[in-house]
């Protein structure tokens, strides 16, 4: 009997321990518990939280929240809702989490808070190298010119505050460029938008530096007040650890450089022009190559004799005055239509050995050694049996070809065409003075766009060139290896106003 009683008591103790463990596991959802009961909501509010091109929730705050969940070995859905719906849901329903929310005195007692996960301010910026130091608004008002967007609320606010030394611009991108180029001393803008605007203006994010913060608010993750305090503590601890080990700075710095504003896109007419451009240019090159290939099989060319080859070159020149036609011998001598004697430096051509190995050349851009103008080389080997005895070639004048293409494409004055070789040399251009120029290698938007055009097969890019914003469609040619471009003047990708900016505006208005 005593033995049975002992077993019963032991069993009860084990059951009580299991029950207690179960209660502890449910309370607050310990790390490693997998899916939680939390519902996380946010709004479309770049750069903090927004739907990307693939329909996925993205943004710097989103990445911070995901990292916290990962560190807690937890998962929870993130839904994008209108702000009013997300706010009301977090206010009224247990276990709902809202980000990114400004923690204002009015809201503070309504939620439990984890953060801060960001801060946003209205700031006066100066060129990074200027050395300007500011101690207060009065100093700015009396000593410096300030660049702002005409009729924007910031323009109206500064006028209301008595600012007179204002330089007005049509948009923030031009205002930022104006400060960088010395047209004004300071730009009055938002810390939310300084990085994407600087990139859109062709500058590095570090080219402008903050010199005075007018007003700033911090952003947090807001939890419904009924959410278990254990969850709040664990989320805050995970965020604090992220800040200590550098993960938080890594995420926010990376996300600041993302251009989250979508391009408006090249027009349908621009895309059609690109197709026509490629067709016309490739048609000229392949037509020349086909003619040379046919002639390379004739007895006159295969004879290798100058007196038999010269009439062929002369006839080609008579039918195409914009190209130079040549015969290159395997011994390094060469001549063009009209020459009385062979020339002796063909062996120095960068493509000579390739030709003599039996490989044709299509689209190599060089400076014509006779005319001094930029030309595209189209050359085919001449065979005698299995031996290469020379090459028959043409040097197509690229200025003349560009002028012909300009007539065919009939682009308006707000657009231009261009073609760039794989090594970054301009082969064709509406503005022929740019032919032969090497691609830029800086960090401005035009340089970045050119690198992308060369690296990718096709796509669209936006950039500033000579102070004008362009959107361009591009595609690589499988025949020449050139990258064909149609560029149209467009609207710069100006970031939309964030919720933090909106709330800061309201705070400034309240304190007028």
Description:
There is one protein chain. This protein has an eight-stranded mixed β-sheet with strand order 6-2-7-12-8-11-9-10. About 5% of the residues have low confidence. The chain contains 16 helices and 22 strands. Helix content is about 40%, strand content about 30%. β9, α5 and β10 form a beta-alpha-beta unit. The longest helix is centred in the middle third of the chain and has 29 residues. The N and C termini lie far apart (about 85 Å). The protein is α+β, with helices and mostly antiparallel strands.
Q: How is the main sheet built?
A: 8 strands, mixed
Helix proportion range: 25-40%
Number of helices: 16
The overall strand count is 22
| Terminal residue distance | 86 Å
Shape: elongated
Q: What do the pLDDT scores average to? A: 86
From the alpha carbons, calculate the radius of gyration and give it in angstroms.
Answer: 34 Å
Structure classification: alpha+beta
- Strand ordering within the main sheet: 6-2-7-12-8-11-9-10
- Strand-residue proportion: 25-35%
């Amino acid at each position: 009997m005593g033995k049975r009683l002992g077993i019963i008591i032991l069993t009860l103790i084990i059951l009580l321990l299991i029950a207690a463990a179960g209660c502890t596991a449910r309370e607050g959802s310990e790390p490693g518990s997998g899916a939680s009961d939390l519902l996380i909501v946010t709004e479309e509010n770049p750069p903090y939280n927004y739907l990307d091109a693939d329909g996925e929730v993205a943004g710097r705050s989103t990445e911070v929240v995901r990292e916290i969940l990962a560190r807690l070995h937890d998962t929870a859905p993130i839904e994008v809702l209108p702000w009013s719906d997300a706010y009301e849901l977090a206010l009224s329903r247990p276990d709902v989490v809202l980000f990114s929310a400004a923690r204002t005195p009015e809201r503070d007692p309504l939620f439990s808070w984890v953060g801060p996960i960001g801060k946003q301010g209205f700031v006066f910026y100066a060129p990074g190298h200027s050395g300007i130091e500011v101690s207060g608004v009065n100093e700015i008002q009396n000593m410096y010119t300030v660049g702002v967007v005409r009729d924007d609320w910031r323009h109206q606010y500064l006028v209301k505050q008595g600012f007179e030394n204002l330089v007005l611009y049509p948009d923030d991108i031009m205002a930022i460029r104006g400060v960088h180029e010395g047209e004004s001393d300071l730009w009055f803008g938002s810390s939310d938008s300084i990085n994407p605007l600087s990139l859109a203006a062709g500058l590095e994010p570090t080219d402008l530096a903050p010199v005075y913060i007018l007003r700033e608010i911090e952003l947090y993750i807001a939890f419904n007040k009924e959410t278990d305090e254990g969850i709040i503590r664990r989320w805050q601890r995970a965020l604090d650890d992220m800040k200590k080990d550098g993960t938080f700075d890594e995420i926010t710095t990376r996300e600041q450089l993302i251009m989250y504003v979508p391009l408006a896109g090249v027009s349908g007419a621009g895309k059609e022009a690109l197709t026509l451009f490629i067709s016309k240019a490739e048609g000229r090159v392949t037509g020349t190559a086909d003619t040379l290939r046919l002639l390379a099989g004739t007895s006159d060319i295969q004879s290798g004799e100058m007196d038999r080859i010269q009439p062929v070159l002369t006839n080609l020149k008579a039918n195409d005055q914009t190209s130079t036609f040549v015969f290159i011998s395997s011994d390094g001598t060469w001549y063009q239509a009209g020459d009385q004697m062979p020339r002796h430096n063909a062996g120095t051509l960068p493509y000579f050995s390739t030709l003599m190995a039996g490989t044709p050349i299509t689209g190599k851009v060089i400076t014509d050694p006779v005319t001094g103008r930029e030309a595209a080389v189209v050359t085919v080997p001449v065979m005698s049996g299995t031996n290469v005895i020379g090459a028959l070639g043409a040097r197509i004048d690229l200025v003349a070809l560009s002028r012909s293409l300009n007539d065919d494409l009939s682009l308006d004055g707000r657009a231009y065409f261009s073609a760039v070789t794989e090594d970054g040399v301009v082969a064709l251009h509406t503005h022929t003075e740019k032919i032969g120029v090497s691609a830029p290698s800086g960090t401005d938007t035009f340089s970045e766009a050119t690198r992308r055009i060369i690296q990718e097969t096709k796509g669209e890019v936006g950039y500033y060139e000579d102070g004008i914003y362009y959107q361009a469609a591009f595609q690589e040619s499988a025949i020449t290896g050139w990258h064909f471009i149609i560029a149209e003047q467009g609207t710069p990708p100006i970031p939309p106003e964030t919720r933090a900016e909106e709330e800061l505006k309201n705070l400034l208005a309240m304190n007028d």
